[in-house]
Amino acid sequence: QIFAKFSTAPEPSSKLLNPPRVPNLIGGTFVDSKSLASIDVINPATQEVVSQVPLTTNEEFKAAVSAAKEAFPSWRNTPITTRQRIMFKLQELIRRDMDKLAMNITTEQGKTLKDAHGDVFRGLEVVEHACGMANLQMGGYVPNVSNGIDTYSIREPLGVCAGICPFNFPAMIPLWMFPVAATCGNTFVLKPSEKDPGASIMLAELAMEAGLPHGVLNIVHGTNDIVNAICDDDDIRAVSFVGSNIVSFLLTLAGMHIYSRASAKGKRVQYISRFSKNQLFLMGNLINFCAQSNMGAKNHGVVLPDASVDATLNALVAAGFGAAGQRCMALSTVVFVGDSKSWENKLMERAKTLKVNAGTEPDADLGPVISKPAKERILRLIQSGVDSGARLLLDGRNIVVPGYEHGNFIGPTILTDVTADMECYKEEIFGPVLLCMKADSLEEAMNIINKNKYGNGACIFTSSGVAARKFQTEIEAGQVGINVPIPVPLPFFSFTGNKASFAGDLNFYGKAGVNFYTQMKTVTQQWKDLPGSGGVSLAMPTS
Length: 543
Ligand code: NAD
Hints:
Blueprint: H1 2-6, H2 12-17, E1 24-26, E2 29-31, E3 38-42, E4 49-54, H3 58-76, H4 80-96, H5 98-109, H6 113-130, E5 141-146, E6 149-157, E7 160-164, H7 172-183, E8 187-191, H8 198-209, E9 217-219, H9 224-232, E10 236-242, H10 254-264, E11 268-272, H11 277-283, E12 292-294, E13 299-303, H12 309-321, E14 331-337, H13 341-352, H14 372-387, E15 391-394, E16 413-416, H15 423-426, E17 433-439, H16 442-451, E18 454-455, E19 457-461, H17 465-474, E20 479-482, E21 498-499, E22 502-504, H18 510-516, E23 518-526
Parallel strand pairs: 7-8, 7-10, 8-9, 10-11, 10-12, 13-14, 13-19, 14-17, 16-17, 19-20
Antiparallel strand pairs: 1-2, 3-4, 5-6, 6-23, 12-22, 15-16, 18-21
Helix pairs in contact: 4-6, 4-8, 5-6, 5-8, 6-7, 9-10, 10-11, 12-13
The protein binds nicotinamide-adenine-dinucleotide.
Nicotinamide-adenine-dinucleotide (NAD) is lined by residues 164-169, 191, 193-194, 223-224, 227, 242-244, 246, 248-250, 252, 254, 257-258, 272, 294-297, 328, 428, 430, 456, 495, 497, 501.
Domain Aldehyde dehydrogenase: 30-270, 293-523
Keywords: NAD, Oxidoreductase
EC number: 1.2.1.27
């Protein structure tokens, strides 16, 4: 039912006349929201309305949380092997419907079909990992801590958890969240991005086909009101957030706002955004929380003179302009150590050959950016760089894509002579814009990077193991690439952002993800013939 509606792009005329309304998922049923208010989901390549996403009412939100709460006791008691088997089935179904999911992502988000497949695939890997998650949930056991007394620890699920998603990975990021939470025995309320909600509901339909019981996964749509409701709800025990900290609604910074509001309610928060934990602490009344939050980024690459020329140029172009620069791990700044001129010119020649087109076109290397306001913001940041003295080596601002004249396209853009005080450097641009900086030494390059407030990823291109090792040790970034431009860890590790790109203690997926969605219980048991006498001792027990 959901796949039929959302997996293919309907004809433009029918879309404009009657775009489908994206349903909520409550207690195992896809239901239309009663809310009259909705937001258009717009194809960024054509401006056609793909669907409409409702601003879910508070009553409907409460119903979703109640469904999750009701499903919890039986789900937590479902054997872990059964929960894992559902993930086995889910990974099979995601593979089966990969093309349909990718088409929905390209239609709603704009990235190329090949990149959309990558989006689904990197989420699929988390589902695959969840198939063996029992290993990560094992507790510990120490026998005979005192005579006849044993102590053991157990990892237990938390209850109802919630996830709030960004637009840039409509499949991967929901799959970072609910498969891990559910396999640990939790139930879940997911709030997809209002810009591209289709993949989430398609994945939910697959999860139910795989055997996920009703109420274990629920979906509610909306924007800040629904997010605030998630943060405030007393039945939600943990919140995972991935997104920005752009000043938006309510003059708050989305990430910071959610982090402080949810943790003030005593919830665990898992959060990827742009501000440091310390900054977030100052903003919020943070009590009794354990947080995990992923936010924005400014990822640097350092190129040493001994780097392999071809491989490095290919890596810079792919990581700088792939997905139109809308990846939290996009390489947005390159620091050339030593002579930069010849690198910059070759980079420009290679970037010029990239094909900008609608993501559905087979020759597209990069598609449009998500929205008109996003495009305006990117153009403003490019201009601010030029105004403050940067040189526009490649200008993609006025690109026109035949057949898609209304799309939000920006061609690959390269700014050189960028310095650390420029706004285009300080802000996350989140578009196909690569900034070039210069340094005289590796130390100077690392110093630039370490002074930047963000710390998601950083990479180095070199043939020197000594330089690479120094970089790996001294660089302040959560994910380090050595001749690898986008070092996103596979699910048996965790996504380990640093500084202002991450707030919290427990990262997404991997061992840390399991720890986030579970809590420890420690049991001390005594099995011995209890002495019939000996009296009562009020002293602290010792062994
Ligand atoms: P966004 O912050 O605008 O939206 C993320 C979610 O928060 C959405 O579901 C949105 O509805 C909600 N939201 C936004 N403003 C809010 C507010 N004021 N109050 C309550 N809720 C609010 O982010 P986006 O533009 O969708 O995603 C792009 C951003 O996400 C980039 O900054 C990118 O770096 C970041 N990101 C980070 C990672 C990472 O792992 N570090 C991964 C993906 C994306």
